[in-house]
Amino acid sequence: MTSEPPWLDVPVTLNDTQFLWLNAAMESARLPLRYTALGPGSKRRAKVDYVVQFHRDHARASCRLFRELMKVPDPSQDTPFTGACPACGAEAESAWACPSCGLSFRSGTDADHPLVLFLREHGGYD
Fold first, then answer.
1. Whether residue 126 has pLDDT greater than 70
2. Are 39 and 48 in contact (CB under 8 A)?
3. How far is CA 87 from the centre of its chain?
4. What mean pLDDT is reported for the chain?
5. CATH 3.30.70 domain locations along the chain
6. Which pLDDT score, from 0 to 100, does residue 44 have?
7. I want to staple 101 with a disulfide (CB 3.0 to 4.6 A). Which of 2, 16, 41, 88 is the partner?
8. Which residues contact 96 (CB under 8 A, 6 or more apart)?
9. pLDDT for residue 2
10. 76-104 burial, b if ≥16 CB within 10 A, otherwise e?
11. C-alpha angle 67-77-125 in degrees, rounded to nearest 5
């Protein structure tokens, strides 16, 4: 019988600023966080990125904190827009995109994006 691993891989790579925000917020909330620093890939890319893991026992609280901190929208809450387009001023009536310039009025995050699916599965949108 195989047990599930206690740590969940969050399907996103964070830059150093995002990681520092998350690490501080997780520490403040007393939520466990594991991470791996990914070294620079080339001389042109000198910054370090991070991959993170949440503990399964604290997944819901960790996912909710992550979603709020990183402002990950919930695509299921998207609604058509009515009003003046913020880009060109054209009137839109219950539209998903501006009829004049094509600006999308959706949240910008696909419902099937791996991060959205992960957050939904582990209670980040509850």
1. yes
2. yes
3. 25
4. 91
5. 1-72+113-126
6. 61
7. 88
8. 78, 80, 81, 104, 105, 106
9. 62
10. eebeebeeebeeeeeebeebeebeeeebe
11. 35
| Per-residue tokens: 93 | 């009536």
Instruction: Return the percentage of the chain with pLDDT > 90, whole number.
Output: 73
- Of 97, 118, 119, the closest CA to residue 107 belongs to 97
The count of other CB atoms within 10 Å of the CB of residue 72 is: 20
CA distance linking residue 117 with residue 31, whole number of Å:
21
* Length of the chain counted residue by residue: 126
Could you give the maximum distance between any two Cα atoms of the chain, in Å? Answer: 61
Supply 109's token pair.
């995050």
Span 1-72+113-126: which CATH code? 3.30.70
State how far the Cα of 51 lies from the Cα of 34, in Å rounded to an integer: 9
Helix (H), strand (E) at residue 37: strand 33-38
For residue 103, what pLDDT is reported?
Answer: 95
Q: What is the C-alpha separation between 7 and 68, in angstroms, rounded? A: 21
- Cα separation, 94 vs 74, in Å, equals 19
